[in-house]
Amino acid sequence: MTAPVWHGVHVATALPFDDDLSVDYDAYAEHVRFLAEGGCHGVCPNGSLGEYQTLTDEERARVVRTAVEAAPDGFHVMPGVAAYGSAESRRWAEQAAEAGASSVLLLPPNAYRADRRAVVAHYREVARAGLPVVAYNNPIDTKVDLTPPLLAELHQEGLIVGVKEFTGDVRRAYEITELAPGLDVLVGSDDVLLELGIAGAVGWIAGYPNMIPRATVELYHLAVAGDVAKALPIYRDLHPLLRWDSKTEFVQSIKLSMDLAGRKGGPCRPPRLALAPEVAARITRDTEAVLAKGYR
Questions:
Q1: CA-to-CA distance for 286 and 276, rounded, in angstroms?
Q2: CA-based Rg of the chain, rounded to a whole angstrom?
Q3: Are 27 and 51 in contact, with CB atoms under 8 Å apart?
Q4: Helix segments in the chain, DSSP class H
Q5: Tens of pLDDT along 23-60?
Q6: Cβ 103 vs Cβ 78: under 8 Å
């Protein structure tokens, strides 16, 4: 039986820029192919890690087309379709469908602290585009919490198929499963992969596979199989690095780690600035320690 297209390891892809901060589409296409070769199951372009907020409409659409065109058979593309307006998010979902994407990732309204009615209406609007919708719960940034009861309501209406759970509260996985049987839980932050994998997650929308896809995909498979004995030593080795995915500097951190691993991470667009020297030094140490142990 074929797994749903939103299952497995989908990498929230970093977006390479040239020195003039224009998008390097060729490097991005190569990166998509690299992740597929590394055993990942798909990519999520135009997420926060892809700096979608800094892209023009033309750039954002072309990033999705580039990912779809570079993806080999069986490798899925789940674009982020967040926007300030619900109609705009729906249009991005329609663009994703036209480009050949297989699902979309959707934040709740993030222009203001939407109540339950507004959240449900928002997901109804985007569901009209026809692609499977994975909700993205990130109340740290959006100030809107997709609580387990609210997720159950969205799922029962047929508006979402899964949720990227980013709160870091691993207890939620159990409550979501109890209130919304059949709603797929996807790991949302790298540093709770093992905990949510054991709890029944069926996917991971991931940051650090941008740098070390093979090692992180292996860890994912061990986690969802419940093989703690084999997973825990790897998890301990990688955790000092994985936790940078949950910090404010996560985009710069992952791009720096990619550079150190021989990938094209490169600069970020403003308002993100270069890392403070002491932070860059710490990430460098954490990255080099992982590479020295042979993780790739």
A1: 16
A2: 18
A3: no
A4: 25-37, 57-70, 86-99, 116-127, 139-142, 148-156, 172-179, 193-198, 213-224, 228-242, 250-260, 277-292
A5: 999 999 999 999 999 999 999 999 999 999 999 999 99
A6: yes
Question: Alpha-carbon dihedral of residues 175, 178, 182, 187, nearest 10 degrees?
Answer: 20
Q: What angle do CA 242, 244, 245 make, to 5 degrees?
A: 75
Q: Please enumerate in sequence order all residues whose Cβ is within 8 A of that of 85, keeping only pairs 6 or more positions apart, or say none.
A: 111
pLDDT, tens digit, for every residue of 105-135? 999 998 889 999 999 999 999 999 999 999 9
Amino acid 66 reads T
Q: Which is it for the CA torsion 221, 227, 230, 231, positive or negative?
A: positive
Q: Which amino acid is at 50?
A: G
Q: Is 181 exposed, middle or buried (0-12, 13-18, 19+ CB in 10 A)?
A: exposed
CB neighbour burial string for 28-65, b if at least 16 within 10 angstroms, e if fewer: beebbebbbebbbbbbbbbbbbbbbebbeeebbbbbbb
pTM comes to 0.97
pLDDT tens readout for residues 170-186: 999 999 999 999 999 99
Catalytic residue positions, numbered: 136, 164
The 104-106 sheet, strands edge to edge = 76-77, 42-44, 8-12, 203-206, 184-187, 162-165, 133-137, 104-106
* pLDDT tens digits, 186-228: 999 999 999 999 999 999 999 999 999 999 999 999 999 999 9
